[in-house]
Amino acid sequence: METNFTMHPDCAEILIGPEELQKKVKELGKILTEEYRGKDLIVLGLLKGSFVFMSDLVRAMDLDLDVEFMVVSSYGASTQSSGNIKINLDLKADLTGKHVLIVEDILDTGRTLYNIRDIIRLRGPESVKICTLLDKPARRKTDIKADFVGFTVEDKFIIGYGLDYAEKYRNLPYIGVLRPEIYQ
Ligand code: IMP
Ligand code: MG
To answer: What's the domain count of the chain?
Structure first.
């Protein structure tokens, strides 16, 4: 795997390198181009985690589309309640009759996407689908599956390519596994 980065913190082990990421994004872009051809599409990124993946993904989609973002945070992670999502910034676009593709960095417990998908569905779109770069099924707490998945990962803490630990490492050009000594 490629390791010639000047920014290669010794707190992470590389899991998916830049070339593998770009290859996967191109594959997803092709699939999504076919899926949404001729449809009125809004690509909705959940910030902050999706910003790097989203910017690569929309450039791999050969379509007319609108880009929107929502800033959401989850809290009360120990509860099973479906109301524990906070929308810090909402999108203004009218979703009536539109096809919405929600783009997420990682599907973990699933609480965030479970809630956001419900909120979006109430706004009258023609369809709502989910594209996540990473899927960590081992930690799922809700009945949710992404429609499009980049990579399935083990139950480890992931950083880079948009994903953070305490707001750091989002700009790493690869996906890494944070060494447990850093957060334990
Ligand atoms: P949920 O548990 O599926 O609701 O995931 C909520 C959010 O937690 C994701 O959008 C990520 O921002 C964050 N998250 C979950 N797992 C990881 C990880 O391994 N690294 C960094 N962020 C994560
Ligand atoms: Mg996050």
So the answer is: 1
Domain for residue 1, yes or no?
Answer: no
Question: What's the token pair of residue 35?
Answer: 């899926």
Q: In angstroms, what CA-CA distances link 88 with 83, 134, 140, 170? A: 14, 23, 24, 20
User: Which residues constitute the domain of residue 56?
Assistant: 12-183
The predicted structure's pLDDT at residue 7: 60
- How many Å apart are CA 3 and CA 17, to the nearest integer? 8
Q: What is the pLDDT of residue 80?
A: 42
What's the pLDDT tens digit per position in 106-160? Answer: 999 999 999 999 999 999 999 999 999 999 999 999 999 999 999 999 999 999 9
108 is annotated as an active-site residue: yes
Residue of minimum CA distance from atom 15 in ligand 1:
108
**Residue 38 CA, ligand 2 centroid: distance in Å:** 33
CATH assignment at residue 96: 3.40.50.2020
Decide if 108 contacts 155 (C-beta within 8 A): no
- Percent of the chain exceeding pLDDT 90 equals 81
Q: Is 127 in the pocket of ligand 1 (CB under 6 A)?
A: no
Q: Write down the pLDDT at residue 77.
A: 46
pTM metric for this prediction: 0.92
Q: Is the distance from the beta carbon of residue 74 to the nearest atom of ligand 1 less than 6 Å?
A: yes
Q: Whose CA is nearest to atom 6 of ligand 1?
A: 112
